[in-house]
Write a structure and sequence with these properties.
By secondary structure, the chain is mainly alpha-helical. It has 2 domains: 95 residues, Endonuclease Iii, domain 2 (Orthogonal Bundle), CATH 1.10.1670; 100 residues, Endonuclease III, domain 1. The protein contains 11 helices and no strands.
């Protein structure tokens, strides 16, 4: 019978194998949201991505940032015009209000700079832990787990966590993923999820993580 120490040693070895293979398969990774050349733009695009594909957000953002060229433009935007500009992303009324209000708060409360602190990010309208972690990881280089649908689904299939709750998944992964790997690990899970570990009909037999995954065998 394995001791607790052996269990965690085995978990560590398996986790390192997973990280190494993902890095070999996807050596160069970046956020799939484009046009986010400034922190506030990534914040806006991340808010638009809720229940919307990154591909759609990228299409919308190109015209959006040509029309609203600054943080101040979004803060002062006519709400109906902003709603029309993001209509195809869905939930456009709520998202437009959140974007306008968050930009106003960044100007008034944070000296026009997107904050780095988790608590401050969570004060912004429409921003939860998933977006806050994306900002902390991609913008500020902090250890961060972005517990999106890919991360939650794949981490559970790989037995790296045992919850569907985003915050619980975040906390569990932070315990086993090295801090310097955490941000890129999540980006790699997105690529892996799109190519192999899909929600429906995952390509288990062709998967390069098949031998360290119990999903197909369950």
């Amino acid at each position: 019978m394995n001791t607790e120490r052996e269990f965690y040693m085995n978990m560590s070895n398996r986790t390192n194998t997973i990280i190494t293979r993902l890095k070999e398969k996807y050596p160069l990774v970046d956020c799939s949201l484009e046009f986010a050349t400034e922190p506030y733009k990534l914040l806006i695009m991340a808010r638009l991505s809720a229940q919307c594909t990154d591909a759609r957000v990228n299409i919308v953002a190109k015209d959006l940032f040509e029309r609203f060229k600054s943080l101040e433009d979004f803060a002062d935007a006519d709400l109906e015009q902003l709603e029309k500009a993001i209509f195809s992303c869905g939930l456009y009324k709520m998202k437009a209000r959140n974007i306008k209000d968050m930009c106003r708060m960044i100007i008034s409360d944070f000296n026009s700079q997107v904050p780095e602190d988790m608590g401050d990010l969570l004060k912004l309208p429409g921003i939860g832990r998933k977006i806050a972690n994306l900002i902390r990881g991609d913008i500020f280089g902090k250890p961060a787990i972005v517990a999106d649908t890919h991360c939650i689904r794949i981490s559970n299939r790989l037995d790296l966590c045992d919850s569907d709750n985003p915050h619980a998944v975040e906390k569990q992964l932070l315990k086993i993923i090295p801090p310097e790997e955490s941000n890129d690990f999540c980006h790699r899970l997105v690529l892996f999820g799109r190519e192999y570990c899909k929600s429906q009909s995952p390509r288990c037999k062709e998967c390069f993580l098949n031998d360290v995954c119990g999903f197909e065998k369950a």
